[in-house]
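task queued by scheduler; priority normal; single chain, no ligands, no partner chains; default sampling; output format set to structure tokens
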Amino acid sequence: QVQLVESGGGLVQAGGSLRLSCTASGRRCMGWFRQAPGREREFVAAISGMSTFTYYADSVKGRFTISRDNAKNTVYLQMNSLKAEDTAVYYCAARTVLSADVNQKHPRYFDYWGQGTQVTVSS
């Protein structure tokens, strides 16, 4: 069983920045998803186990950066130029495999989930 613990959410003004963190053991593919009220959970970003590959949702490209520090068992999501539409509960997720696949962005491909952290962007 893999336990994921997110931190770093909060309230920020539009245009501001936040960094989310997720601790998880093992060098596996990791991802971030988000879910706004009344909407389905959507993919945000993912990174392979050795940081070789990263990919992003079009809505966050150029603004968000996913990275990891395997020595600290931590994955990060740096979020810049935040917009009101980024408001959601953000979830960290992990796969059982090392590699990342740009064609496997659906939540069903991820096996373990954190409890979520709220990000609210005020306009």
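post-processing summary
- The chain has a mean pLDDT of 94.
- The longest strand covers residues 88-94.
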